[in-house]
Amino acid sequence: MANALRSAAYVLQRFVLQRSYLTARADVFDLSFRVRAEDVVGRHIYKYGLHEPAMTRWLQQNLSLQDGDVVIDIGANIGWYSLLCSRLAGARDVAIVAFEPDPLNHELLAGNVQRNQAAVVCEALALADSNGAATLHQHSHSNRGRHSLLPINAVGSTEIQTQRLDDYWASRGFSDRVPRLIKIDIEGFELMALRGATDTLARCPLLIIEFSPSYMRKGDLDPAELRDLLLARGGQIEQLRPDGERVPVDFAALIDGDRQADLICHTDLR
To answer: 0.90 exceeded by the pTM?
Structure first.
């Protein structure tokens, strides 16, 4: 019944009142998000109170943050995972850094951090294997999480700044801290971002990554290279299915296929 009422309210707000932006309330920690009305992430939060429920539930059950930890959210979009982690951190001394280079996404991200009074640092940067400028290829408002530094979209583009995570880590004076979690979802560009994070990644016990072989191939990247990078870390790699089941990763099938997969790569869940 609640979802039906939310869905009806969404139709009213978007199609009758023609709102461009909505305020979506999440069932998780009573978080609040300002979202584009037509964006798939914002729409799901508004109608169902959730985003990516399997991964959200897994983090709630398994992520243990302690004083001195750092959470790195690469491709933060409107801030779902950054805000989730801020609530999971509680009063502990945990640094949460959200990277989102798209100007509108970053504006929404920063606003959502403020409206939820969360201790999250929002950086208008893309993480890559070099420092400088790059072109962000933008998708339509229907899926603002599809923006990529790979040429997989043709709706629009904007110039953004890139930085290596290892350089950012050193500039923030994080040398004594633990990169407890790196979450990365940047539509096929994950390989390049992780190449710029060699030192940080080596100290990170938990990496959550979206593996997008079709986007990588479209951007002239070899998905096998990302597989090799992940395997070289050691530890355990599992695929988290939408139903919440964790299964061994069949990299051969994953690389040759077109579907994205959420991978959990961990050496210590503490």
So the answer is: yes
